[in-house]
Amino acid sequence: MVRIGAHVSQDDPAAHAAEVGAEVVQFFLGDPQGYDKPVLPAKPVEGVDVYIHAPYLINVATTNNRIRIPSRKLLAQHLEAAAGLGAKGLIVHGGHVNKSDDPQVGFDNWRKVFERLECPIPVLIENTAGGGNAMARKLERIARLWDALDGFDVGFCLDTCHAHAGGEELVGLVDRVKAITGRIDLVHCNDSRDAFDSGADRHANLGAGSIDPELILAVCRAAGAPIVVETPAEGQAGDIAFLRKNL
Ligand SMILES: [Zn+2]
């Protein structure tokens, strides 16, 4: 049985894990909308597997130096802090380039990240639901990203809400992803409040959104990777119980 858990608040991840029955926790190290240095949780995180989610503002693909350069620095700082906590991986969104930019520049910028970065733990690039000219919304782009990262040890985090809202059918998705990346390190198991290919990133508890729960289960079974629900907190215990019962 794969390990199942939740994205929780960083104030006391182990206590939140116990509340929802999680064997795995994911949390931010500080404000996900800020460029601040990582802040470690106040209480030790013991007895659960840990994943750290990097701030949303990180965009290492962009051609804008004033975003890309601080993004690289922040990514390195969060990676080091996550490794210090014994985390199994650092999740970061694929990012995007400006509307008029050639996406290849963004893929090349990603390659430069790994040419310079020490990776004591794996970086897991996550697919995104939207973002104009995104690097990791559609599989065609993820394939080009993985071409650019050939030779580097890079992990993948598959988010079911983002795939659905981003316009990728969940049927057979794991096989199509693995054909590109060779691996799925973590599943972000979320329902989507919004319709297929809407481009909106609003997570829902399992069964409360627009995705057939059977499709979500099928993705989880096929991926065979640890699972984290990033769903509204009040329903997380139910989501985890649903997965345990049905997987
Ligand atoms: Zn996610």
Give the tags.
TIM Barrel; 15% strand; binds zinc ion; two-stranded antiparallel ribbon; 247 residues; alpha/beta
- Sheet with most strands: strand arrangement: 1-2-3-4-5-6-7-10
Q: Which structural class do you get from the secondary structure elements?
A: alpha/beta
Q: Can you tell me the number of structural domains?
A: 1
**Continuous helix count:** 8
Oligomerization state: single chain
Please give the CATH architecture: Alpha-Beta Barrel
For CATH, the homologous superfamily is named as: Divalent-metal-dependent TIM barrel enzymes
Spatial extent as radius of gyration? 17 Å
What string gives the helices and strands in order? EHEEHEHEHEHHEEEHEH
Biggest β-sheet: count, sense, barrel? 8 strands, parallel, barrel
Q: Average pLDDT across residues? A: 97
Beta content comes to 5-15%
Name of the CATH first level: Alpha Beta
Shape: globular
GO biological process, one term: base-excision repair
Keywords: DNA damage, DNA repair, Hydrolase, Metal-binding, Zinc
Cofactor: Zn(2+)
Family: Belongs to the AP endonuclease 2 family.
Description:
- The chain has about 250 residues and is α/β, with parallel strands linked by helices.
- It has a single domain, classed as Divalent-metal-dependent TIM barrel enzymes (TIM Barrel).
- Helices cover about 35% and strands about 15% of the residues.
- The protein has helices spanning about 15-20, 65-85, 105-115, 140-150, 160-165, 175-180, 215-225, 235-245, and strands at about 5, 25-30, 50-55, 90-95, 125, 155-160, 185-190, 190, 205, 225-230.
- The protein has an eight-stranded parallel β-barrel, surrounded by four helices.
- Helix 2 links the parallel strand 3 (about 50-55) and strand 4.
- Helix 3 (about 105-115) crosses helix 4 (about 140-150) and helix 4 runs parallel beside helix 6.
- The chain is globular, with a radius of gyration of 17 Å.
- It binds zinc ion.
- Zinc ion (ZN) binds next to loops.
- GO terms for molecular function: DNA binding; DNA-(apurinic or apyrimidinic site) endonuclease activity; phosphoric diester hydrolase activity; zinc ion binding.
- Its cofactor is Zn(2+).
- Keywords: DNA damage, DNA repair, Hydrolase, Metal-binding, Zinc.
